[in-house]
């Protein structure tokens, strides 16, 4: 790669690494530090047509993105409404359950403690019997 730069520099003077397009070239004038610049004719119509095509494509992509954003927004709003309804339903059910527990006056905590004690006793006795 370095040899290519050296060859280009020898053909086009010190400005060779700074060439921007094929139509732009430089050559050194013998005996002076000046550079002569020659710009080849350039077809602007083709470039404008190409840019117009790219702009049209970008516009189409932007429209597609806009449509997708609207769809995603509607979907998220529906999901959010569903979540809000589900939260309200859970809240109402918890309220009803708490009322039922308070009204019935059940001793469910006592039942859980008794169950745990009975299970502990069974496991303890089983471990004593299995050692013998």
From TrEMBL:
The keyword Transmembrane applies. SUPFAM superfamilies: SNARE fusion complex (SSF58038). It is found in: Golgi apparatus membrane. PROSITE patterns: T_SNARE. The chain crosses the membrane at residues 108-126. Residues 46-100 form the T-SNARE coiled-coil homology domain. Gene3D superfamilies: 1.20.5.110. It is a single-pass membrane protein. PANTHER family: GOLGI SNARE BET1-RELATED (PTHR12791). This is t-SNARE coiled-coil homology domain-containing protein. It comes from Stylosanthes scabra.
């Amino acid at each position: 790669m370095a040899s290519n730069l050296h060859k280009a520099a020898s053909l086009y003077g010190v400005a060779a690494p700074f060439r921007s397009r094929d139509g732009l070239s430089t050559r050194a004038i013998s005996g002076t530090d000046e550079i002569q610049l020659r710009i080849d004719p350039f077809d602007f119509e083709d470039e404008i047509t190409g840019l117009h095509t790219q702009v049209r494509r970008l516009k189409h992509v932007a429209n597609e993105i806009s449509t997708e954003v609207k769809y995603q927004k509607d979907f998220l709003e529906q999901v959010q409404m569903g979540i809000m309804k589900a939260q309200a339903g859970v809240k109402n059910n918890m309220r009803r359950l708490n009322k039922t527990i308070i009204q019935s006056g059940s001793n469910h905590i006592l039942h859980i403690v008794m169950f745990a004690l009975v299970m502990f006793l069974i496991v303890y006795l089983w471990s004593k019997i299995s050692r013998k």
